[in-house]
Design brief:
The chain is α/β, with parallel strands linked by helices. It has one domain: 3-Layer(aba) Sandwich (Rossmann fold), CATH 3.40.50. Helices cover 35% and strands 12% of the residues. It has six helices and four strands. It has helices at residues 20-30, 100-113, 123-142, 154-159, 161-171, 178-183; strands spanning 9-14, 74-76, 91-97, 147-153. The protein has a four-stranded parallel sheet with strand order 2-1-3-4. Helix 1 links the parallel strand 1 and strand 2 (74-76).
């Protein structure tokens, strides 16, 4: 049974490796229909799946015809692509925040597992770039009258999930299965902790 959901596109966003896949899984078990094509399958970096929709990456090229079909569903859109969402829709954005050292460690581990080059930019510079990018994204989000945003801390979600799951449920009009969402959080996958 699906939850009673707002008549808006539910967007899960954030930097890559910030907990967006975890939030997508939580929404799915909580009763939110998910928009995904399963093209990117689960692997060692995301054992429970990526929950991605390839067409999202085509938004900068003008492919937004799918967006109205995402009303009352959840779709994952990384922070860099948010500005390409058409202004004709209403959005509820769950924006995932995670400690930068953990994002960097997680990205490095994923690059190594794919035999891709790492450390082309040092951590201090990468953190500066992340901060600058998120400042721009936050400023853009604040100017969008059709967008409501809930900031969700990944680290806090793993440490003390109940209050945040309650906030997410209220943000999406209160019809979610919060117990199922709590059970979907897998601390065993929290492998790149800040010291």
């Amino acid at each position: 049974m699906t939850a009673s959901l707002p008549n808006a596109v539910i967007v899960v966003s954030g930097l890559p490796r910030s907990g967006t896949s975890m939030m997508m899984k939580m929404l799915e078990v909580g009763g939110v229909p998910i928009m995904t094509d399963h093209e990117r399958t689960a692997d060692d970096n995301n054992p429970e799946g990526y929950y991605e929709l390839e067409r999202v990456k085509q938004m900068p090229n003008g492919d937004v015809a799918w967006v109205p079909d995402a009303r009352q569903k959840a779709v994952k859109v990384i922070s860099a692509l948010l500005k390409h969402l058409p202004s004709t829709e209403q959005y509820r954005v769950l924006f995932m925040r995670r400690a930068y050292p953990e994002i960097l460690a997680s990205q490095r581990k994923m690059l190594i597992s794919r035999n891709r080059p790492v450390d082309q930019v040092d951590d201090a510079e990468m953190t500066r770039l992340f901060e600058m990018h998120l400042k721009e994204v936050d400023a853009w989000l604040e100017t969008q009258p059709n967008v409501r945003v809930l900031q969700v801390g990944y680290n806090a979600m793993l440490r003390e999930p109940e209050p945040l799951v309650t906030q997410v449920n209220e943000f999406l009009d209160g019809g979610l299965d919060t117990q199922a969402m709590l059970h979907a959080i897998n601390p065993a996958l929290y492998r790149n902790r800040s010291s």
